[in-house]
Amino acid sequence: MSPPTTSRRQFLVTAGAAAASAGWSFGQEPAQAATAKYHRLNLQNPAAAPFLESYKKAITVMLQLPPSDARNWYRNAFIHTLDCPHGNWWFVVWHRGYTGWFERTVRELSGDPNFAFPYWDWTALPQVPDSFFNGVLDPNNPAFIASYNEFYSQLSNPMSALWNSFSTAQLQQMRNRGFQSVNDVWQAVRDSPMFFPRGRARTLTRQNPGFDATTRRAVSIGTIRNALAPTDFITFGSGKTANHSESATQGILESQPHNNVHNNIGGFMQDLLSPTDPVFFAHHSNIDRLWDVWTRKQQRLGLPTLPTGANLPLWANEPFLFFIGPDGKPVAKNKAGDYATIGDFDYNYEPGSGEAVIPAASRPGEMNNKVWLGTLGAAVPNFSASARADVMVPEAVPEAAMKADGPAVFAKITIAPPMDVAGVEFHVLVNPPENVSHVDFDSPSFAGTFSVFGKQLGGHKNQPLSFLMPLTEAVKKLQETNELKPGQPLRVQVVAERKGVNLTPLQAKVSEISVGTF
Q1: Is the pLDDT assigned to residue 17 strictly greater than 60?
Q2: What does the pLDDT read at residue 444?
Q3: Nearest to residue 386, comparing CAs of 443, 452, 430, 442?
Q4: Are 94 and 83 in contact (CB under 8 A)?
Q5: Which among 70, 63, 65, 57 is positioned nearest to 115, based on CA atoms?
Q6: Are strands 347-349 and 38-40 parallel, antiparallel or unpaired?
Q7: DSSP code per residue over 191-253
Q8: pTM of the entire structure?
């Protein structure tokens, strides 16, 4: 992904026109229908309680299905392991298809014809919902497989049979991911690790369900407003890559609420078998809801809702070959473009956090969609030193960011992730005091935290990965406290920290830091 630039304005045509020129039928439809057959409620709404009970019924059935059945709970989670995209422009659309088909399976197996996934609005509720510590909504429940050895014993033969059934096209998708055989899949599951034994299947507990300080910042309404601020799909939805198993850039929605919530919950949620934890689907329903909010904001402003021009067919034709329907068979809709809109999943959302950006949205102004490259002063963050860059931006940028309709400010930080990303967080500071030795999360300089979700697989290990980090709130606070002087560069500093007791030295390098607006 390239950060937004002024030249991008020439592409501000409606997604409908772009879609029509490319021969696609989507683009003209509203983001979500005013009325729909299914209604995804905020799980804090008491009316969502019956849906959570239906979800529990379906989970119980799927845990009891033999692993030879594609609807088995763990077989469904393996779809995510084998095929999910992260750090690329298929992030939101693949997860819409995955969650949408799984919702239909839950509807079928629960016997609830009206079931729709309740979404978890973590901006309003920055903790694991108490309901997800009840029964099989908790992956530590005895109904789940207790150990890796038992997991491998039950799933090994069915996964080998699945691999042997793959078409030539599916095997190519596995090669794109770095999997040459089913043994490579098991090695990734074992070594990451992706499986967590009973008692460690989730880190947050009923007694301690709350998010840490960095995750609370990542789900705050200020961060959500910044995540919804981009005016083009690639900046909003993560960067352009050749296929959906590669990674390039994570937009704010992915790098902030998505990754931080996954990693803070811990256990299964911190890696690619994350759908083993039932809270996964409440989390991703909220990600999908925010995509819907962004889409409706774009439609209100007459801006593109999808990739434009030649990018549209490249994006829409990407194969999604592993989704399973409620009958346990592969689905017919097997391209990204099939999930560009909610379509015949036929659901809509109860309004939640972020909805206010739609009536408040304004067209991009003079200070929007600009980028300034920083000068690196130090490039290798470790647990005793930080990486930093000075970025000269026009004096008008901080002033404009103070306005309600002003641009959002972000940093793009490109880093070679460490081989061992477990527990590693990168805190981003703006113009902190000299010789700062620790991160004060209440400081005006603290902008936020990014971390890697899951592991880079196969041939993609050590591939540079960029993260978009919101700076707007920090810039505003520095302005308010007179800590940002006219003509002074923005000094963006990256401080590494590892949680837990793992003392493995950090091998990471920042190759570029830039500041931009959207």
Answers
A1: no
A2: 94
A3: 430
A4: yes
A5: 57
A6: parallel
A7: HTT----TTSS-SS-SSS-B--HHHHHHHSHHHHHHHT--SSHHHHH----SSTT---EE-HH
A8: 0.93
